[in-house]
Amino acid sequence: MSALPSLAEVDALGPLFVREVPERYRDLNGHVNVRGHYDLHMDAAEESWERQVGLDQAFLDRTGESSFSIAHHVQFHHEILVGHEVSAYLRILGRAPKTVHAVTVVANRTTGEIASTLEFVEAYVDLTTRRATEFAPEVAERIDALLAEHAALPWSLPSSHQLGTSRPS
């Protein structure tokens, strides 16, 4: 298992958002519950897909193509308390013709720690057939540019068990 990067290191990815954690995420233990972590990761994924990858409503309307989640694996590293300031990031880990492997990172800016990571695999989908298809060239180019930029980073994150862009043979 690799050590977690510092907040300064993940900040190099450029935060997708910075926000204060709302009261609704508090659980009986007094910290942010699993649903709160997951909501933050989903907000990050949606923001990155729209802003960085270009899979927004206009693209879907124009092409009839989007993405479906295939696998998610959340790892909790440090707790977050309500009222803490958090930020979220995307790092692309790999791409195949029809799938992308990535991770969102939620950092606790109040404590300076990585709070949780969500490693995931998405399939690019033709919504008329509801089947995976090869990425549109414009989307593949954006993902590949991010992948090249992210692969050059000097740090890594603990990976989940067997997530990736291809199935074992």
Automatic annotation (TrEMBL):
<protein>
    <submittedName>
        <fullName>Acyl-CoA thioesterase FadM</fullName>
    </submittedName>
</protein>
<dbReference type="InterPro" id="IPR029069">
    <property type="entry name" value="HotDog_dom_sf"/>
</dbReference>
<dbReference type="Pfam" id="PF13279">
    <property type="entry name" value="4HBT_2"/>
</dbReference>
